[in-house]
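Entry for the shared binder. Reason: the reviewer on the internal report wants the predicted structure included alongside the sequence.
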Amino acid sequence: GRGRVGLPRSGRVPDGSTGTRPEPASLAAARRPLAARLSPLLERKFRDSLKLSRKPKLPFEAPPNVHCLAAPYDSIDGLANLLETNVIHTVISTLNPPDPEVQNTQDDLVKAAAKSSTVKRFIPSEWGIDYSIDDERLPLPWKTLKQQTIAELEKHPDLEYTMVFNGYFMDYFGMPHCQSYMPFEPPYIDIPSGKAAIPGSGNDKVTFTYTKDGAKFVRKLVESPTKWPTHSLIAGDVVTLNEVVEAAQEARGVIFDVVYDPLEDLRDGKVNEIPAYVAIYDYVPKEFWLSMMAGFGVAMVTGVFVFEGELLNEKYPEIDTTKMCDFIKTQWTGR
């Protein structure tokens, strides 16, 4: 199935009043690894959880009080009725990948949320960077699909929403040793093989966030009674890819074979391959993957992966985020 929905059942009234009431939050999650990370954190805060799926069984291990219900993703009215019947207040989408059919499903979920009488908040599936940035800095053809959902959200002013930007997930650089639900899709640096193909000079700053840290910030957003900003920025750590390579070399005690892809090549969709990409081609078309690596490479070189504005880190300083080089050393020392 393409979706999962989590349903916590208690919390503060979001309009800032002093009373309390049931405040369910739904988790629509085709990106099953991210849903798996968010699920237990939401469960810890709220009394009960439900997840809605095309199939009545969750594809990942969930807390014992998380239950799964079948969701009619092919019917806006059916979805709206399901959200309303279960008194769902907040929808968190992790629908993925950037595919027209999946994106249309998320758009229908927005329409259903707006149609229901109970849903007041919506987090669309962004989980990375601002996909509205121009092609000069972010040449990804499928980013228009992301913009499509935001355009739909803008049609419903009574539905509060925020886009969560967290940079690149740190998990990819700790696999297979770190605790993570993400697939093995390391970008640019293949630590096990000791090879790297770095975009640009490798000295450009990039934001990385470990999924378990990102999930903690999302829980804070769900709990918050204040109005959401349209952009919620998270920065687990900000380092260069050269610093990541250096940390990996030190941890493993080997010198990596490193090549650098100039910006001109990246703009032309050209990148050097690393061994880890070969396994990815089994389920992601090679041309699509390499073009995505080139597009994200351009974004890294042009500063898209460094956020401007107030970070959630500043609003919630009690959340201690994982630092990239420490993470690399923890996962790879002696391996």
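Summary line for the report: The longest helix spans residues 100-115.
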